[in-house]
Amino acid sequence: RIISGLAKALVVVEAAEASGTLITVNCALEQGRDVIAVPGPITAPTSRGTNRLIQGGATMLADPAQLPELLGLQPAVPRALHELPCTLSDLEARVCSALGTEPLSVDELALATGVPVGSLLGVLLSLELGGLATRQVTGYIRRAWGGHG
To answer: Which candidate, 149, 143, 147, 126, places its Cα nearest to that of 66?
Structure first.
């Protein structure tokens, strides 16, 4: 009850059919909270609960980029490259400029920017946390502002 009571919505990533997560889901529903579920492979036991939640009417989260919208939040990302926050370091701005709507691997991004992979990983984390870069399930990175669906 405490976990579901502290949240605006409950996002369920994995849940077996008889998991404790489903108890939390029931508490969230009793408290009027939204339940959002991430679909999983139909053959995975840890996806049976989430897939049943979706089947039962929970909102499906198919792409992490949907989450701010589902929670009623306005994403704080610029609409165009020229609207990037002026608080970016030179290195962050260089990496942002190299990001496009087509996903790149970390190695491709390192080659494009001349930034060593070790340094690039820290910059990418900062950009992701700031809502400027999106890491896809494949590990590839793309910009998180303007021009992509």
So the answer is: 149
Q: Are 127 and 92 in contact (CB under 8 A)?
A: yes
Residue 112, helix vs strand vs coil: helix
Report strand pairing: 9-12 vs 141-143: unpaired
**Against a cut of 0.70, is the pTM above it?**
no
With contact defined as beta carbons under 8 Å apart, do 19 and 51 qualify? no
Report yes or no: 118 and 49 within 8 Å, Cβ to Cβ.
no
Identify the bridge partners of residue 34 per DSSP, sorted by sequence position.
9
Q: How many residues does the chain have?
A: 149
- The four Cα atoms 66, 72, 77, 78 give a dihedral, to 10 degrees, of 110
Could you tell me the sign of the dihedral formed by the alpha carbons of 115, 121, 122, 127, in that order?
A: positive
Pick 4 or 96 by higher pLDDT.
96
Confidence (pLDDT) at 67: 79
What pLDDT sits at residue 145? 66
**Residue 124, token pair as written in the block:** 């990418």
Q: Which of 26-30, 69-73, 81-85, 134-138 has the highest average model confidence (pLDDT)?
A: 26-30
